[in-house]
Specification:
It is a single chain. By secondary structure, this protein is of the alpha+beta class. It is built from eleven helices and four strands, in the order βαβαββααααααααα. It has a four-stranded mixed β-sheet with strand order 2-1-3-4, covered by helices on one side. The longest helix has 29 residues. It is globular and about 60 Å long.
Length: 288
Amino acid sequence: MTDYTPPKVWTWNKANGGTFASINRPIAGPTHDKDLPVGKHPLQLYSLATPNGVKVTVMLEELLALGHKGAEYDAWLIRINDGDQFGSGFVEVNPNSKIPAMMDHSGGTPVRIFESGSILVYLAEKFGEFLPVEQPARAEVLSWLFWQMGSAPYLGGGFGHFYAYAPEKFEYAIDRFSMEVKRQMDVLDRRLAETDYLGGKDYSIADMAVWPWYGGLALGRMYNDSADFLSVQEYKNVQRWAKAIDERPAVKRGRMVNRAFGEPAMQLHERHDASDFDTKTQDKLAAE
């Protein structure tokens, strides 16, 4: 119980505390003028290696692994804790000021694409990969893709926020979102008991969308000791699926792009060429 009573009309008169207090605000739009860089490739990605960012870099690396040269891309680091997403150039690409955001300059008119699920569908349709054309397989993949888009806020903004980032521990909030995340893990576990991948027998954009969130949780990579707290080892089918995807070479590369935290050898702040994985990671730059 607390002594807080919501006012009749909410007003923003103080920072809310927590890890992201410095960038949280109840209004949209840019806070400063800053143009976005543009590299040599048609596809320009502006992102950070959060789970949502990793979805897209994994997709691009998977396309390149299949030989789609048109999927070559420049990846520019957007440091969200520093407010880069509120620069005028970024807001022009994504008025919602969230990563990832992409520009496709391959045609006569540049195309902006924002929201990670939208980018995955756009790339899948552009290159004809990882999204079935025929029904019912296409509907199954899209259903699981949009399941992730609707479910992940409970994991990230709900459980993750109150378990790891909030200024205080609130039992009600942690219990509420822990219950929901475990229910979602059970949904995935039951589906993966039936088939190898979420959309069916083939790896797809559904897996690329879900894996950085729920695979990351299953592999113990999210929110401190949350894997133990949520007993993720009990979801055996999710564990099998998460480990199999984790071993894909393109996934390993995709996890590194725009990463600005963790082991220096896993951090490739910007990616402009395939050779950057061998020469431009933070451990190698620091040794120069």
